[in-house]
Amino acid sequence: MPHTILRKTYPPPVLVFFFAFIMIASLLTYQIFISPFITAPWPKWVMIPSFCASASFAWLSWLVNPGHLASPAQRVRNRAPANNTTFMHLLEQVDAADLCPECRVIKIPRSRHCNVCGVCIERFDHHCPWINTCVGRRNHFYFFFFISATWLFLLSCLCEIAVFYSEIVDG
Ligand SMILES: [Zn+2]
Ligand SMILES: [Zn+2]
Questions:
Q1: pTM, to two decimals
Q2: Does position 111 have pLDDT exceeding 60, yes or no?
Q3: Domain hosting residue 59, numbered range
């Protein structure tokens, strides 16, 4: 059986920098142009910790292995001609639908091959362009808190606008 090379794309992490720019620009804009003019301090108490939490959990989600079924080093070894017989042997024993032709590993329930990262991910959720990595079994926890903290940060931005309008614009 010929070795099937699935389509791989390696997009530059433009969205990661775009996301960081939006977050930092929002924080600085609010802290410089809005916060000094309102008396209610609580939007700031939520905004700064939620910004720090969002950045920390985004970094942790990116840092933690999402659950690769085969490491890149293993995949290189598996591609070696001497090991082709092992893969062919696997094909005789395991249903072809249960094998990933790219990683040459036996897939497990809910695992899926990510065409961007080029690896099979355990309990695959999705490939997140904002953190430029997959979300899988091992980093799902951090990703959940990343989304929650980002949501809280955006909510605190809206609250700060509401307080600004009620205190300054309406008098
Ligand atoms: Zn795979
Ligand atoms: Zn991926």
A1: 0.78
A2: yes
A3: 14-169
